[in-house]
Structures are given as C-alpha cells and as structure tokens.
Amino acid sequence: MTTPEPAREPETPPAAPSSGDHSGDTPSSGVHSGEQSEPQSVPKLRPAVAAAGRKVAAGGRTAMGAARRPQGRLVTGGLFITAIVTGAVLIAVWLAPSGGVPAAQESSASAGATSAAPSGTDQASFSPFPTVTTSPAPPNSGLTEWADKLAVKVEIPPVALRAYAYAEYVLTSRKPGCNVRWSTIAAIGKLETNHGRVGASTLGPDGRVLPPIVGPALDGKAGRSKVADTDAGALDNDRAWDHAVGPLQFLPATWRTYAVDADGDGLVDPNDIDDAALAAATKLCEANKDLSQAANWTAAIKTFPDLSAKVQQVFDAANVYGQKSRA
User: Fold this and answer.
1) pLDDT of the residue at 138
2) Quick one: average pLDDT of 233-237?
3) Contact call for residues 196 and 188 (beta carbons, < 8 A)
4) Which member of 96, 185, 246, 266 lies 3.0 to 4.6 Å from 270 by CB, making a disulfide possible if both were Cys?
5) How many CB atoms lie within 10 A of CB 132?
6) Residue 266, CA atoms < 13 Å, CB-side half-sphere
7) Residues 114, 106: contact at Cβ < 8 Å?
C-alpha cells in the first residue's frame, strides 16, 4: 500500500510581520524657560505711512483754503471726508499683522502638532487617527490562493485545506524525514467530522467550528471505549466521562499533549481546525518514521484510537484527495 501525495508542495507562507519597539520616543517641545523679554520701544511709522500722513495734512489745508472761496464751499464736506477715510485705511493697513495669524497662535498650533503627531511621520497634524487596527495575517495566509483553487476539486472548505497544508509545511520543516502529507491529515478530518461539518456544526472563515463538536460520552456503552473524565469537564462539559472534541476528535488528555496555537490568535482550541490540524500532524510524526512507507503510515494512523479499525477508509480518502489534486 502506498501513500498518496499532493500534486505540488504547498507554497511557503509569508513570515509574520514584526513590529518595532517605539517606546520612549517623545517629541521635544523646543521651549526654553528662563528667557526674559526685552523692553519694547515705541514703534516708528513706516515711511509710506508717514508720507501718506503728510499728504492727508496737505490735502486738509487745501480743502480748508478752498472752502473759504464761494465756489469751493459746496465740495468742502466731500473732500474732507475723503481725506479722513484715506488716512484711516492707510493706518489700518500698517497696524494689521502681515502673517494673517497672530504669532502666539502659530506657536500654539506648532506645539500641538508636535505632541499629537506620531514620531517619525509626516502625517498632517490634525488628520484623525484610525480607530480600527488590523491584526497580523495568520501564518497560513500564503496558502490562500492555492487552497481556493484546489478546494473545488477536492471538495474541502478552503479554510480547512489551508490548515492541512500548513500542518504539512510545518512538519516538513521540523521533521523532514516524516514525509507527512496534507492528504493524510485531510482524510482524518473527513472521517472524523467531514472537516468540521457534522450535525449542526459549521466551519467559520476563521477556522473555528461552531457550535463546538463534542462526541458521545466514552462511558463504555454501545461499543464505545470507557474513559473516565480527565479534564474536569473543561473541554467536553462532562465531569464524569471524557468525550472526543473538535473537528479532528481529540480526547482531552491527548489534546493536552499536542495542543498548539497554529494560527497565532493567542488561543489553543481543539475546535479551531488550524490548531487541530497541526496537532494531528505532530502526533502522526511523533515516532519520526517515514510515512511514505506503508507499515509506518498504518502505525501512525492507529495512534488515533477511533481510527484503528478504519485504516483502509483513511487510506482510500487520502488516495482520492491525492488523485483529485493531480487532475
């Protein structure tokens, strides 16, 4: 009996993005205490304004002289008002600040921009900062395109296919002599729970099965094994008997041995197919024997108690996946 292999090696997932440590980066304010201001002198008129003042004065004398003549008395009032308005406009221009914003306000705005903007960026000071942050991509995200294309052929949900292929990739790196293939892990998932889709359970896009899959009580009845509770009901909610849990049906005691956070979400969950698939691959390769050899492959499958009598069915399912992936 030979072990089926996938059509191609899964592509290498991208490395997880690293974030630099920017702690302690504090912007300097540039303000120096203890500075004393020098006494201000009386401001001098600008030359243009002084000249304008002389013109206004001369215009006023001319207007007064004209007003003494009979023909000029009619326009005296208009000329006098014009002279006053012109002088007022020129003085207002001189008094107005040339920058458009008072200097004190400009300094305040600059200080606010320095303290609000992130260090080392050229982002606009008053742009709103984002309130939603994105989490780093899961380690198996590099397999998305491969899984999406193959999922239709092998009739496996893409999220499950990524989990199986990533488990092969990790074990190939850790134990290259084991030669575990994703098709074998997928066959186990198929026989155990149809890839997390048994009963009312469904496999979500994050790889988590809801509601959680909990097998029947291992109470020795109806041909089942008899396994007393080992986890105080933590995984199966039963303090009397153990139950197999998750899409790959781990017993609580077995899960404690092989539990792993494969997708980097900070949780170790047997109902997360990413975690369960990598745990299963680790278990298959525990003896570090070449699974391309029929005897070694069979022995590895039999380490899953509920599959020991279904070795041929696991092989057939794995063989189908291997053939479809090469089609």
Assistant:
1) 79
2) 95
3) no
4) 246
5) 4
6) 2
7) no
Q: Are 6 and 181 in contact (CB under 8 A)?
A: yes
Alpha-carbon distance of 63 to 59, in angstroms, equals: 6
The distance in angstroms from the start CA to the end CA of the chain is 21
Predicted confidence band at 65 (pLDDT cuts at 50, 70, 90)?
A: low
At CA 137, angle to CA 135 and CA 141, rounded to 5? 160
How many whole angstroms separate alpha carbon 304 and alpha carbon 283? 9
Backbone angles phi, psi at 70, to 5 degrees: -60, -40
Are the CB atoms for 297 and 289 separated by under 8 Å? no
Give the closest residue to 277 by CA, choosing from 163, 170, 176, 182: 163
Tell me phi and psi for residue 77, to 5 degrees: -60, -45
pLDDT digits (tens, 9 = 90+) for 148-193: 999 999 999 999 999 999 999 999 999 999 999 999 999 999 999 9
CA atoms within 13 A on the CB side of 10: 30
Residues of 181-199 as b/e, b for ≥16 C-beta within 10 angstroms?
bbbbbbbbbbbbbbbbbee
* DSSP code, position 72: G
CB 269 within 8 A of CB 208: yes
Which residues neighbour 246 within 8 Å (Cβ) at sequence distance 6 or greater? Answer: 193, 209, 212, 213, 255, 269, 270, 271, 272, 273, 276
H-type helices in 47-99, by residue range? 47-68, 76-95
> Residue 145 belongs to what H/E stretch?
helix 144-154
How far apart (Å, rounded) are the C-alpha atoms in residues 286 and 281? 9
